[in-house]
Amino acid sequence: QDNMAFTGKYEVESDENYDEFMKKIGIPNDIIEKGRNFKIVSEVVQNGNDFTWSQHYPGGHSMTNKFTIGKEADLESVGGKKFKATVKMEDGKIVADFPNYHHTSEISGGKLVEVSFQISRLLKNLKIKQP
């Protein structure tokens, strides 16, 4: 993994299932409505395993998470919940478990690709059969 691979500014280009995901993690409809039309800018500064990850929203609101890969950090979710988590690096992807969703970030084709999915929904679909 390049020491500075994630460093850069990224503007949301597209999103899939935005409304459905935001509702499932408990974001109010008025906030979902505002966010749908915003161009959110993510700014990432990477220095080795240390990251400063900021999201800039129109109107001057920003949210910043600082973390070191493999060490527990105080983080804030998209819904404003404060929590502790250990952010990991797996196969060049940054991986974090938020209170009610799993999140991965990677650089692909010069773009920041972020994927979030609700954890409880995933577990409900888990089916195990005896060998």
From TrEMBL:
Belongs to the calycin superfamily. Fatty-acid binding protein (FABP) family. GO terms for molecular function: lipid binding. InterPro entries: Calycin, Fatty_acid-bd, ILBP. It comes from the Eukaryota. Keywords: Cytoplasm, Lipid-binding, Transport. It comes from Nothocercus julius. Residues 8-25 form the Cytosolic fatty-acid binding proteins domain. Coiled coil: none annotated. This is FABP6 protein. Its main location: cytoplasm. The lineage of its organism: Eukaryota, Metazoa, Chordata, Craniata, Vertebrata. One of its GO terms (cellular component) is cytoplasm. It is found in: Cytoplasm.
